Amino acid sequence: MSFLGFSQETQKLTFFEHSDSFNKKRFWTVAGIGAATYTGTMIGLNQLWYADFPKSSFHFFDDRGEWEDMDKAGHFFSAYNESRLFFEGAKWMGIKDKNAIWIGFGAGTLLQASVEMLDAYSEKWGFSVADIGYNTLGCIVFAGQEWIWQEQRFVVKVSSYRKPYSEEPIVSVSGNATSDLKSHTDNLFGRSLPAYFLKDYNAQTIWVSGNIHSFIKNKESRFPKWLNIAVGYGAQNVFGGYYNSWRVGNESYRLDSEEYPRYRQLYLSFDVDLTRIPTKKKALRTLLHLVNMLKIPSPTLEFNTLGQIKFHPIFF
């Protein structure tokens, strides 16, 4: 018997099958991949996000309302999906459900706390209690569903579609220089796909996608098992933490609030739970589980804080 209380003997498995008992070889495989992923993620985040900013001693930072709270939605999404992926890894090793839930919860908490520590030692940011709260909520949403229903009826997803930014000249406050929005967003959000996928809050939408069939008591119902209703959160015209102003050298720039009003968006859309699409191919089923964190483009209603209601025939 192992420390976790499972037999280490297991039948010969295909790679994509979960083990029904603790598998020592898989444990060391997952431990190695997990350590490498953790190290690589921390190094990558440091290079993408923190490397260009000065360090400081540990300090707190109240960032509620910054970026129209899109970063908080991102923390919620990341913690949920990290918990989900580590839970699946634990199940693949043969760890039983309740212990796997705790592993998923703990791994999601650890990864997000590590990111928060990078913030805590960066002069531009700091340790955010609000971030920790959203991280914890994401982990709880995953673990709570697994504990109560033994399935994920509500999945936290992301979509991202970056529109081109204007290259029209913007005159500095002093009137002595010009810049443009594209140059500013390239510096702010990055030029590469990984950078602006993570950082461009105007492009991101965070979704909670709920499966309808899982709440139908008649399990013989012919209602599509894969069809979801999703509620999304986004923001537009966000070109600074709290204000659309920035500096380039000694020059300051400020966007006209009439032309670029900052606003929040709430979306209602259809979605597909890819994990509920029937397939006998285990490799395909694994792939569908991995990409299920991405929202499927669908017809969407938008409600925003400008008082507008918009219909998007297809929204990414």
Tell me what you see in this structure:
The chain folds into two domains: 150 residues, no CATH class; 164 residues, no CATH class. It is built from seven helices and ten strands. Strands 1-4-5-8-9-10 form a six-stranded antiparallel sheet. A two-stranded antiparallel sheet has the order 2-3. The chain has a two-stranded antiparallel sheet with strand order 6-7. Helix 1 runs parallel beside helix 3. It starts with 23 loop residues before the first helix and ends with a strand. The N terminus is likely disordered.
The percent range for strand residues is 15-25%
Strand and helix order = HHHHEEEHHEEEEEHEE
Mean pLDDT: 90
Strand segment count: 10
Question: Which structural traits does this protein have?
Answer:
316 residues; alpha+beta; 2 domains; six-stranded antiparallel sheet; two-stranded antiparallel sheet; globular; disordered N terminus
Topology, pairings included?
Blueprint: H1 24-50, H2 70-93, H3 97-120, H4 129-149, E1 154-160, E2 169-171, E3 178-180, H5 181-189, H6 193-199, E4 204-211, E5 227-236, E6 245-248, E7 251-254, E8 263-272, H7 282-291, E9 298-304, E10 309-315
Antiparallel strand pairs: 1-4, 2-3, 4-5, 5-8, 6-7, 8-9, 9-10
